[in-house]
Specification:
alpha+beta; 3-stranded antiparallel beta sheet; Aminoglycoside 3'-phosphotransferase, Chain: A, domain 2; 292 residues; Phosphorylase Kinase, domain 1; 10 strands
């Protein structure tokens, strides 16, 4: 759909909203996003499934706003049918690892404390929220079987034998680890990567965005993306984290971190807004096989 379609919807629902410039982001996986004057963001779910989930996300964020200290989206514009909604843009920039490396020691500590506090409070959300906000419950066995099936069917024919062997060894380790892990399901962001972590250098505050993949599942999944900043940082956040811990939590999180490029390569083949090359290069880096 063209930008005019979405702009007209916003005008119809919220005639008080005015703007001078806008940019539209259609490459998102779940939503079309329009940014007005770099101050206001509107999101449109791309299909019926995400439209229904969007309603629940808006309600959940309103609930979490009272429990979470870091910045999270607060929807102030919600259409009557909840098919589109907008919020004031969070100040800050996506916290890539290259940006993190330039942090001072005190900035890294502030960042670690805020992430640990965020995860502690998010994971402490009572189980009653499962039904109240219709949050899906993760099924690790099903996810693992789908990962194996998709990897063997779609990825193995496109990589060399040595790389296949590396992934097979990884999948075996993941299975053994999951089979011998015992953890309580908690509310997770489930996509806590650098793209969704914003750092406001003016006040040294973290803002977390995009809760569309939230689920009740393994708390380790929310530590996975933090490996992008290095083991020292992950260990520091884990040390400050006050949620329930088990001996395998960090190990599982690292395995989930290595799972991401397999997802990206498969999703690229399905037409999602990523490339196979992007996932493949990430795969070689995370599995330390750049010169196989």
């Amino acid at each position: 759909m063209k930008a005019e379609f979405f702009l007209q919807q916003i005008k119809n629902e919220f005639p008080q909203v005015e703007w001078k410039k806008y940019r539209i982001l259609t490459h998102g996986w779940d939503h079309v996003v329009i940014v007005f004057d770099e101050k206001l963001i509107f999101r449109f779910p791309k299909d019926k499934e995400y439209k229904e989930e969007f309603k629940n996300e808006i309600q959940l964020l309103s609930y979490l706003k009272k429990r979470i200290k870091v910045g999270i989206p607060e929807y102030t514009y919600v259409s009557k049918d909840k098919s589109l909604a907008g919020y004031e843009m969070s100040n800050g920039r996506e916290l890539k690892s290259s940006h993190f490396k330039r942090f001072t020691g005190s900035e890294k500590e502030l960042f670690a404390k805020q992430m640990a506090d965020f995860l502690t409070n998010l994971h402490a959300t009572p189980n009653s929220a499962i039904s109240k906000f219709n949050i899906s419950v993760n099924n690790p066995k099903k996810d693992y079987n789908e990962l194996v099936s998709n990897t063997e069917k779609f990825l193995f024919p496109r990589i060399n034998k040595k790389e296949v062997s590396v992934i097979e060894k990884y999948l075996d380790e993941l299975k053994v680890t999951l089979d011998h892990s015992n953890y309580p399901n908690v509310l997770t962001h489930n996509d806590l990567t650098w793209e969704h972590i914003l750092w406001n250098k003016d006040n040294n505050k973290v803002n977390i965005i995009d809760f569309s993949d939230r689920t009740f599942g393994d708390p380790a999944i929310d530590f996975a993306g933090l490996w992008e900043y290095g083991q020292i940082f992950v260990n520091r956040v884990y040390g400050l984290y006050k949620g329930k811990k088990d001996d395998q939590l960090l190990h599982r999180s690292q395995l989930y971190f290595k799972r991401i490029p397999l997802f990206i390569m498969k999703d690229a083949l399905d037409g999602y807004p990523c490339t196979f090359k992007e996932g493949y290069e990430m795969f070689k880096k995370r599995y330390k096989i750049a010169k196989i």
